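User:
Note these tokens:
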Amino acid sequence: MTDQATSGKKPLFRRPAIFTRFDHLIAAESTRHGGISPAPFASLNLGGSQDSRENILANNHIFFSALGVPFPQVAKSHQVHGREIIDVKTPGRFEGFDALITGIPGIQLAVTVADCTPILIFDPVKNASAAIHAGWRGTVSQIASRTMAEMQNAFGTDPKSCLAYIGTCIDKCSFEVGEDVAQHFEAGTKRWDAEKEKYFVDLKKANREQLAAAGLLPKNIETSPYSTVLNNEDYFSYRFENGMTGRLLATIGYFPDL
């Protein structure tokens, strides 16, 4: 990943390296720096309901302006930790979807996270893109592979042509769960800690395996080296900050005229 649009010496956002060779593709994930929100949402809080709407809106304008994206071109959804996918035809605000896809240039897709896994996908042949919010429930529901299937159906996407970025989320050393959650994950994506009598789940690996099973080439999948918990100075973490924290955005869009 590469740091971009710094606030002082701290990055406002980071761009996935896998997408940087595409001149007209805008893809990034935000950090917590460069906004106007006070603690505990300091400072670039881009979602949630606890901070003021005015702060969140101002922060969104700061973030998308730094990316060079006109804010009216952004598409988001109120996420419900489900597996529903929307094929976005016009920018705006939607309800009840945890993945957005589009084959229309000039629409900037965005998903909100604060420990869950953001996933961005680009098909450079069809110029189609996807933004996915995959918490543990979404991961178990195969939302990444379902989104890939939707892109195939909607746009004729070939998974082997696609590139993907698995973004910053809670890490495998921090995502402690009980048997009720762990039972839904394959052995290779969880480990048992005998001392704590808990499982630890690797959401990045689980989603990477899902994308590979859907047909993406391993060399075309980038995984963020950052953690919302271990790198909490740069990212918001709902679990680490006991729910009193801001939200990050992961975003992608194809703009041939920019």
